[in-house]
Structure formats: C-alpha cells, structure tokens
Design goal:
alpha+beta, two-stranded antiparallel ribbon, binds calcium ion
C-alpha cells in the first residue's frame, strides 16, 4: 500500500491520496462486504509548522481472538496468534486466562494516556477500535467482557 499526501499551498488544506495495491497481484473488484476498517486523519493547526497524522485501521480479526488487527497492532499483541505470550489483549499476564489479575493491571492505569512511565503501556489501550491513546471505562469494559475466558 502506498500513501501519498498532497498539501494545497493556497488553502493550507491537506489532501490524502491512498493508492492501494499488492505486489504480484493485479486488480480486484471493490468488495463492500470486506472487513477492512476505516481511515482516520487528524490535522493540528499551529502557527509556523504543523503536525498531522493519518492511520488506517483494520476491522479484520486474523486470529479470531475478538480483537481487531487494528487494536492488536496498537496494543502490541500478535495479530495471528490468539493464545500465547503477548497474543491476546485480554490476557495481560500471559497465563492464557483472562481474570481479575488482568483487569486490575489495566485498572491501575485508569485515566492515563499511553506513553512512557508513569503513563500507560500501549497494551492497556484496547478500545475503541481504533484505540484512543487513553485508558478509560471503554478499555475496562472490553477486558471485563472476556472475564473468565481462556484464550484459544
Ligand atoms: Ca492475537
Ligand atoms: Ca491472564
Ligand atoms: Ca482506550
């Protein structure tokens, strides 16, 4: 996938062109049932220079563990393994089970942004899709929905 960004000097508006392709494969038809996610972009206005960001979030769940590839990419867990070390976002301590130890680990970072200590590790930011860089009730709700489950 190639992403190019074009800035229009007159209006200071940024246009993002996404050209998607795969090496060795040609052209497919658009499939409206495809589980691909959405595109988000953020422009932060400032004087002088500026920063902006762009992300494409996948709604696919390659390993079927209940967390999208977009969430797992952000959390740092394995997109293709539903069970194992750093494979399932609901199992923070890697014991193959989602229980109160995992919930308490996440709650310890409640109301903290993702970032270097004392902020939260990315692993605790598992909601919404795409994760918002913050540990809050949505993250707690997502992990407690798996309470008592074992990874598969
Ligand atoms: Ca996984
Ligand atoms: Ca666990
Ligand atoms: Ca979050």
């Amino acid at each position: 996938m190639w992403i190019t960004k074009h800035t229009t000097a007159k209006t200071s508006r940024a246009r993002v062109f996404v050209i998607s392709g795969r090496f060795g494969l040609c052209c497919y038809n658009v499939n409206p049932a495809d589980g691909r996610g959405h595109i988000t972009a953020q422009f932060v206005k400032s004087t002088g220079g500026f920063t902006d960001s762009f992300s494409i979030v996948s709604n696919q769940d390659s390993d079927g563990d209940g967390f999208t590839n977009g969430v797992e990419s952000s959390a740092g867990t394995d997109l293709f393994m539903g069970c194992g070390v750093d494979a399932w976002p609901a199992d923070i301590n890697n014991d193959t089970f989602s229980d109160m130890f995992d919930v308490v680990s996440l709650v310890n970072y409640y109301a903290k942004a993702v970032g270097p200590p004392p902020n939260s590790p990315a692993h605790y930011d598992i909601a919404p899709n795409a994760p918002d860089g913050f540990v809050d009730i949505f993250d707690i709700s997502k992990i407690t929905n798996r309470l008592g489950q074992r990874c598969r």
